[in-house]
Design a protein that fits this description.
By secondary structure, this protein is an alpha+beta fold. About 35% of the residues lie in helices and about 20% in strands. The chain contains 5 helices and 6 strands, in the order E-H-E-E-E-H-E-H-E-H-H. The chain folds into 2 domains: about 45 residues, no CATH class; about 100 residues, no CATH class.
């Protein structure tokens, strides 16, 4: 499940200060040339300015414990491929370049959800995996995520 990606406050503040004629987006003017008639076809596209940062959240629900590690590895690879490609249209013109940063992983079992309801606020025992800075680091250090999953899911340890 991929949740809506909301613009980070710091990016919103920067975009509010830039006068593009639009609210937090910009116009990109382009011109297509008809190859047969050589007629110009000017157009404008509205896009998010480069450097804008969004909060991205992906939730993976474990349906088959034996498949979880492979699924998460495939998701990590897909995110790396997306960084090398583009998100949305007009990627060949440089649009849609994305970079994922500061990965945070946590595992929440049914037992943990039950524990949260019976403990005082702020005393939850949910232990996230240390943040991973980049997609490249995620791929290179996938073993730490594998170990985290195996400890909590595959071994039956619910903490």
């Amino acid at each position: 499940m991929i949740r809506d990606c909301h613009l980070l406050t710091e990016s919103a503040e920067k975009l509010k200060q830039v006068d593009t004629g639009l609210y937090m987006t910009e116009w990109k003017f382009e011109n297509g040339i008809d190859r047969v008639t050589a007629a110009a076809n000017p157009r404008q596209l509205e896009r998010v300015p480069a450097g804008s940062k969004f909060q991205f959240e992906l939730v993976y629900t474990v349906e088959d414990a034996d498949q979880a590690i492979e699924d998460l590895q495939n998701i990590a690879i897909a995110l790396a491929i997306l960084e090398d490609d583009a998100l949305g249209g007009h990627g060949s013109r440089g649009y849609g370049k994305v970079r994922f940063q500061n990965f945070e992983f946590s595992y929440h079992s049914l037992a943990q959800y039950r524990q949260i309801t019976s403990t005082p606020p702020g005393t939850s025992s949910l232990q996230p995996l240390s943040a991973i800075a980049t997609t490249q680091a995620l791929l290179e250090n996938f073993g730490s995520l594998r170990e985290y999953i195996e400890q909590r899911l595959l071994s039956g340890n619910e903490s």
